Amino acid sequence: MLDLGIEPTPDALYLAASQSHSDVVEVLTGVMDDIDTDVGWAGNALCAAACNSSGYNTIKVLLERGANVNWQGGKYGCPLQSATACYRLENVKLLLKYGADVDAQCGHYGNALTAAARHRTHFEEMTTLFLEHGADINAEGPGAYGNPLQTAVYLEHVESVKFLLEHGASKTVQGQFGSALDIAQRYMPHSNSDKDVQRDILKLLDLLEKDQFGIFITED
Question: What does the DSSP 8-state code read for residue 173?
Fold first, then answer.
């Protein structure tokens, strides 16, 4: 490939990684001094590979060639959050195996647990992995969604709320949007979403008895 005049640049590495061309990545990383350069939307080559459903082998090549598993930058902040936000469970497992920091504070979601709480796909599997690796279930990062429980409540993800509470998430810990209780009380009365979903979340938060539902939310 290099004989064809393709320059071993950060841009070339990023493109190859984003498209899961692990063979190309292996060649490029063999002749490049810096493989962690911030290049595109995803950040660097490792973050780009972490987002890809076919990125496992590329991630492994990059890490074996010395890529920083806890590099920070890009849309999602770091490789682990990139994989989490894009629902790539196997990529998450691989990054954790190589020492990814589950409590890294960075990116759009703030931390890996909050990124997992933002979506339902692989939520329990990813959250369990993060907790097994010592993640702080109440940690709030610099992102836009508060902590994991606050995020799940705001998005009305019932099963995620239940799971987080069962694993020790605090209903009262404060964040930039208040506590999970504050969020439920502030937003749910004005939401047009499924009232049964809202009822279930409010019960989980101990905000509502069965005969009080009509006081808090008017049913259709």
Answer: -
Structural domains of the chain, with CATH: 1-96 (1.25.40.20)
**By the 8 A CB rule, do 20 and 52 touch?**
yes
What does the pLDDT look like over 9-38, one tens digit per residue? 999 999 999 999 999 999 999 999 999 999
Short-list 44, 42, 45, 133, CA closest to 93: 133
What interhelical angle do 10-18 and 56-64 show, nearest 10? 140
Distance of alpha carbon 22 from alpha carbon 27, whole angstroms: 9
Supply the pTM of this predicted model. Answer: 0.89
Cα within 13 Å of Cα(128), Cβ side: 6
Contact 73, 44 (CB under 8 A): yes
SS3 144: coil
Q: Are 74 and 83 in contact (CB under 8 A)?
A: no
